[in-house]
TrEMBL record:
One of its GO terms (biological process) is cytochrome complex assembly. Residues 35-194 form the Cytochrome c assembly protein domain. The keyword Transmembrane applies. InterPro entries: Cyt_c_assembly (IPR002541), Cyt_c_biogenesis_CcmC (IPR003557), Cyt_c_biogenesis_CcsA/CcmC (IPR045062). This is Unannotated protein. It comes from freshwater metagenome. GO terms for cellular component: plasma membrane. The chain crosses the membrane at residues 32-52, 64-90, 102-125, 137-158, 170-190, 210-231. It is found in: Membrane. Belongs to the CcmC/CycZ/HelC family. Residues 8-23 have a biased composition (Low complexity). Residues 1-23 are annotated as: Disordered.
Length: 261
């Protein structure tokens, strides 16, 4: 009777590739932010859908305001953080890519939330103006900024070393951030259909107290979501850089060490 063959080195599982035995890659801070985000989003759903009153003119369609303002707030903050992180990388003149990864992660989040802003705005425009899209100054400039940061992400994907990626994308980020004040003040610079700020311009728009508080809840909830996404996304980018430089085992070990710490 033939004896069973022992496993060859090709078929056996190396110890380094074995499961980590329940090792977590999360940290206490990210778990706390995640829990706070869930609570904040739950509070926003309650206030935005049930407690906040309907608008006199726009009725229940005004509830899109909380999503529309929350997403554009995150996009503005994300693009500003991208610019600041890029400036920090250029100013430090170091081989560390931490600032560059924060810039890239924040830009990706900003592009996502800017897309949600355009989507929510088009739905609200359909209900308010009768059209999904109008060539309004605010709407058009927002779409242009969205395309600009898609270009920024494309620049990050070009070939070259990590340091070359960081330098060229930092320059683009410092130029692209100049579009934020242009978009924000486009309503004042050019007349259009888009209304001015619902909070800053209280002479033309008056928000009910509960509507204003619900808007505050939206800003807090979306800010927490941004922080949570930023922490996790920059870690993924760090793993990708480590994978390119030193291989998969090293990247996984670095990530698990951060979770254990």
């Amino acid at each position: 009777m033939p004896t069973p063959k022992s496993p060859t080195p090709e078929t056996s599982t190396p110890a380094s590739a074995a499961p980590a035995g329940g090792a977590s890659t999360g940290t206490a801070f990210t778990r706390a932010i995640g829990l706070a985000t869930i609570i904040g989003m739950g509070a926003l759903a309650v206030f935005g859908l049930f407690i906040s009153p309907a608008d006199v003119r726009q009725s229940d369609s005004v509830r899109i305001l909380y999503i529309h303002v929350g997403t554009v707030w995150v996009a503005y903050v994300a693009f500003a953080v991208t610019a600041l992180s890029s400036a920090a990388y250029l100013w430090k003149r170091t081989t560390s890519l931490t600032w560059d990864r924060f810039a890239g992660a924040s830009a990706e989040i900003g592009v996502l939330f800017m897309a949600l802003t355009l989507l929510a705005g088009s739905l609200w425009g359909r209900l308010s103006w009768g059209k999904f899209w109008v060539w309004d100054a605010r709407v058009t400039s927002t779409a242009f900024m969205f395309i600009t940061y898609i270009g920024y992400l494309a620049v990050r994907g070009l070939g070259g070393s990590h340091q070359q990626r960081a330098r060229r994308s930092a320059v683009v980020a410092l130029l692209a951030v100049l579009e934020i004040p242009l978009v924000h003040f486009s309503v004042k610079l050019w007349r259009g259909l888009h209304q001015d700020s619902s909070v800053a311009d209280r002479t033309h728009v008056t928000l009910h107290g509960l509507m204003l508080f619900s808007l505050f809840v939206a800003l807090v909830a979306f800010s927490l979501l941004y922080v949570w996404l930023l922490m996790h996304r920059q870690r993924v980018l760090a793993m990708q850089d480590a994978l390119d430089d030193k291989g998969l085992d090293y990247a996984l070990q670095q990530r698990r060490s951060e979770g254990d710490a």
